[in-house]
Structure of VOC family protein:
Amino acid sequence: MDRTIDHVAFGGLELYELRTAANEVGLTPTYGGEHSTGTTHMAVVPFPDGSYLELIAPTLGTDAEDAGFWPTHLAADAGPTGWCLEVPDVAASAKTAIDAGIPVDGPRAASRERPDGRLVEWDMCFEGDDLRLPFTIRDRTPRDYRVPRTSHNTSLRGLRTVIVATRDADATADLFARRHRYPSPVEINGPFTNFSVCPGTPLALCEPGDGELDARLDDVGEGPCAFLIGVTDIDIARQSLSLGPEIRYSDRRMAWFDHELFEGRLGVVELP
């Protein structure tokens, strides 16, 4: 059962704008270089637990629709695009998906060249006809080639929750039970009207309850719509992070980053 997030991807039209917004709310991205397709480049915001936020956008001169990763999401400036689990063997994980009746795209090799010239290489596999399911990854080169070791903000612990927007939470829960053996979701108070979590996993689900979420589903389909980073205490986190109003998250607290690019799409949640 895979329950730990390797990284999440947050996409847009301009990497400079994404990096600027991240810096303005207290995150410190490091430019990670261009992917081997030559159509996207990225920056990394690493966290102490080893997970990271990937900011991704088309390279200069590339139309978003021609991007090698998540072209529809990049063209729509959609923010959350995909999420990833690290696995011991991508090919074996792909076989498990196929046995569960889920089509796969991969495994395939991928790489990017860092600004210092170091080549980062990995194997990856996408699953399913939509982006609700995470893709899988396994490093070919040492992991610290891909992920910087340290975080610039010690109030952040690591990626905690991926919120998946879906038109049918029961069907999506069944998909995750079949593929990853996730437990049944439990409804809780949260940032969206129809909100539930799969206990012990990084997955939360939300169904349309307002026009904004409906519009997102129309534009980019089902899949991640928001990411939450774990913190030990929101009051302490506010000392170094720009956060919006407090929101109840079950018996805990959460808040979105206070920036128009991140509101409703990237936030923090207190750890239990």
Remarks:
- The longest strand covers residues 104-113.
- The chain has a mean pLDDT of 94.
